[in-house]
Write a structure and sequence with these properties.
The chain is an alpha/beta fold. 45% of the residues lie in helices and 13% in strands. The protein contains 15 helices and 10 strands. Helix 9 links the parallel strand 7 (215-218) and strand 8.
């Protein structure tokens, strides 16, 4: 009798626990986990990043400002998407076979994304990069298995530009080993980059906002993210979603969009890395006329937003991400209250901390005074 009673109590307790679990405060997380399930290898974890509502800026503008948290990709940036798609494109076209080699010219996150993708899929990776980049980036790429060639930093038009050296390296390897194949993935003009965002990022944003998105904005380097997301959102909304370019100093794209197509001489520079352009890439070319405008964002606004996002949102963002957030705020102010504006949080500040939070570096860029007094406590490096 006592034994039966204990069994009944245990069953009752188990049932109660299961019922409580069904009503857990993490019900949303459980639903997302069920939808995600398990993925096949690292590349299956690329994408499906959350949209984060930026509370303070949303309240300031009366809008809903959302950031796509691309720093949560396995390689730490939005470039994981492009890296996967340029490799997939080469596979689909028969240019890469098991044991083949991927070659790219990149100074930043695309190389890191490619390193992860190539290790996961069993390819060799060769990277050409300007020798102006930090030793830390070179070391990280090599740690991830890439063969790295730092070369002199020269203009795109120069045949010794790192991109053209990467192209020649791939052509040489292909002649030497046609059985396995080699490909220059050419992130700037390979429209598989744009396709990544038409097929993944754009649909994710639309689904996550349940179609209630009024505008999108981000900066551009290769043009793939801006072009791909713009194309998808324009198509799915029958043109009602507005799209705006965010541009740093030293880029010609703001003037190009604002002037209706006049490509001016490039001048100046910015603290941001991997964004801003002196030309219209093939990725951007097809969608540049779809843009509804452009915003030129100063380095002063960008660095202040790096610190604001850390202080107000707990988000540890790189300069390109902060520039995008500034642009989202300005788009919200342009549209007025009760609009939803989405941008891209490209990567975190982890690879840039020795500059962004350094008193010496800020002074060297004449940006020390751009940090509000209340945020100076984050300048923790000499």
């Amino acid at each position: 009798m006592a034994s039966a009673l204990r069994t009944s109590v245990r069953r009752f307790a188990t049932t109660a626990i299961r019922a409580a679990a069904a009503e857990t405060p993490n019900a949303y997380g459980v639903r997302v986990s069920k939808a995600q399930g398990s993925v096949d290898q690292l590349v299956g974890a690329i994408g499906n990043t959350p949209l984060i509502r930026l509370k303070t800026l949303s309240e300031e503008t009366g809008c809903n400002i959302l950031g796509k948290s691309e720093f949560q990709n396995p390689g730490g940036s939005v470039k994981d998407r492009a890296a996967l798609y340029v490799v997939k494109d080469a596979e689909e076209r028969g240019l890469l076979k098991p044991g083949g080699t991927v070659v790219e010219g990149t100074a930043g996150n695309t190389g890191i994304g490619l390193a992860h993708v190539c290790r996961s899929r069993g390819y060799r990776l060769v990277i050409y990069m300007p020798n102006t980049q930090s030793q830390g980036k070179v070391d990280l790429l090599r740690l991830l298995g890439a063969e790295v060639y730092p070369v002199a930093a020269v203009a795109w038009e120069n045949p010794e530009n790192y991109n053209w050296q990467a192209k020649r390296h791939a052509e040489r390897l292909l002649k030497e080993d046609p059985e396995h194949g080699a490909v220059w993935t050419n992130q700037f003009d390979n429209t598989a980059n744009r396709r990544a965002h038409i097929e993944t990022t754009g649909p994710e944003i639309w689904a996550q906002t349940e179609g209630k998105v009024d505008a999108f904005t981000c900066s551009t380097g290769t043009g793939g993210t801006l072009a791909g997301i713009t194309r998808y959102l324009k198509d799915v909304s029958n043109g009602s979603v507005k799209s705006f370019l965010a541009d740093p100093p030293g880029s010609v794209l703001y003037s190009y969009v604002s002037s209706g197509g006049e490509l001016k001489e490039r001048s100046g520079s910015s603290i941001t890395e991997g964004i801003g352009q002196g030309r219209v890439t093939d990725n951007l070319k097809q969608e540049v006329k779809e843009l509804d405008g452009a915003f030129s964002i100063s380095d002063e606004k960008t660095i202040e937003m790096v610190y604001r996002c850390l202080d107000e949102e707990g988000l540890y963002l790189g300069a390109s991400s902060a520039l995008n957030v500034v642009a989202a705020k300005e788009v919200a102010e342009k549209l007025g209250p009760n609009h939803t504006v989405v941008t891209v949080l490209c990567d975190g500040a982890y690879r840039y901390a020795d500059r962004l939070f350094s008193d010496k570096w800020l002074k060297s860029k004449n940006l020390r005074d751009a940090i509000p007094k209340r945020l100076e406590k984050y300048i923790v490096l000499p």
